[in-house]
Amino acid sequence: MPVDATLPYDDNNIFARILRGEIPCREVYRDAHALAFHDINPQAPTHILVIPTGAYVSWDDFSARGSEAEIAGFVRAVGEVARAAGMVEPGYRLLANIGPDSHQEVPHLHVHIFAGRPLGPMLAR
Ligand code: AMP
User: What CATH architecture does domain 14-115 belong to?
Assistant: First the structure.
């Protein structure tokens, strides 16, 4: 069910529960500002989600309210995850859904990292 990214943050969304350790994940990276884990329903051979450790609904919310340190830390973490997984040379794709038209399903900011095969056109045609 797509979410309305303008709603207040829901402390019980699935990624908030993963951050609190209430639900397991296949973790690949964690630091003060970011957690990365494998998507439960991968859309590419490698499909990793990177989320900020702070409570932000979407990229819109994060870019408006996140501190400089949180934003820098998160952006660096996304790059670090991709470098550590050897994705830079063959290439990878980043994607973040924001709101209903994007079909965002989880109301905690997440950046998808897709890699592992030629990924084709940017959007379905
Ligand atoms: P989006 O449509 O951008 O909100 O994407 C949400 C993503 O979260 C989807 O790719 C789901 O497969 C993924 N997802 C949902 N629940 C979990 C979970 N418990 N662990 C890992 N990934 C999940």
Answer: 2-Layer Sandwich (3.30)
